[in-house]
Design brief:
mainly alpha, disordered N terminus, 85% helix, single chain, Methane Monooxygenase Hydroxylase, Chain G, domain 1, 243 residues
Length: 243
């Protein structure tokens, strides 16, 4: 009897893994594009573009479902173990975080629709929404780097993303303090501020999801689960193992 550990069977499995990986990256590219479009809608105060982002969220959800179904098929057919199973679980968790990032982009688009989608409502002060754009761009940069780490199995770059998570949290807290000042100076900004806080929180979570993806990369490449490990320990132990 022919040993199936070599030959076409293993090659087919490798091909399935590679195809699944590319679909995850396709989903990542779609999500990044959603963030870019939402930022542009904010910059241009364009509710029609914001509505496009909201409508395109279905594309993200469809890819999420497709990848979930294909993962189940691969596991049922191949019954992977060890690193192969870890690889599939990493991709599955990454897809979950990407779908949630898509939700956060939709929330930013909904903010644009809320503020500029009706001719009867006055536009908010530019100072009120200044921090929204900055945190959106920073969160997107984290996601770009996390996807690059995922695509190239680069644990060192993944650690860089985890470092950045502390910075985006600082930006979020600073933005909240500035919003509180605006409210004290002008109580008429309260209605706007509630929506801005929700948007800021959504964008801060993009950084959190990027951090999660970075953690999965470290798990796949080193076998270490760093989800509940502090940054100093990650730097000391993970980077030391890589060098």
């Amino acid at each position: 009897m022919k040993d199936i550990s070599d030959g076409h069977t293993v090659k087919r499995f490798d091909g399935e893994l590679a195809t699944h990986h590319q679909l995850v990256m396709e989903m990542g590219g779609l999500v990044v594009d959603q963030i870019n479009r939402a930022i542009r809608a904010l910059d241009e105060e364009d509710p029609s573009l914001a509505r496009e982002v909201i409508a395109r969220d279905r594309m993200v959800n469809d890819l999420d479902i497709r990848l979930d179904e294909e993962l189940i098929t691969i596991i049922a057919k191949r019954q992977p173990v060890a690193r192969d199973l870890r690889n599939l679980m990493t991709m599955d968790k990454t897809v979950t975080d990407l779908e949630r990032v898509g939700d956060e982009a939709r929330k930013l688009a909904a903010l644009v629709e809320e503020f500029w989608g009706s001719s009867s409502s006055a536009a908010p002060s530019p100072a009120l929404i200044h921090d929204v754009r900055g945190i959106a761009i920073y969160g997107k940069s984290m996601l770009d780097k996390a996807l690059d780490a995922f695509n190239n199995l680069d644990a060192e770059k993944a650690v860089e993303v985890i470092r950045q998570d502390e910075r985006i949290e600082e930006k979020f807290r600073s933005a909240l303090r500035r919003l509180a000042t605006y409210i004290l100076e002008d109580s008429r900004t309260v209605g706007y501020s509630i929506n801005v806080v929700l948007a800021l929180r959504a964008l801060e979570r993009i950084g959190g999801h990027a951090k999660n993806i970075a953690g999965y990369v470290i798990y796949l490449t080193t076998g270490r689960d760093v989800r509940h490990v502090d940054l100093n320990t990650i730097v000391d132990e993970v980077l030391k193992d890589l060098r």
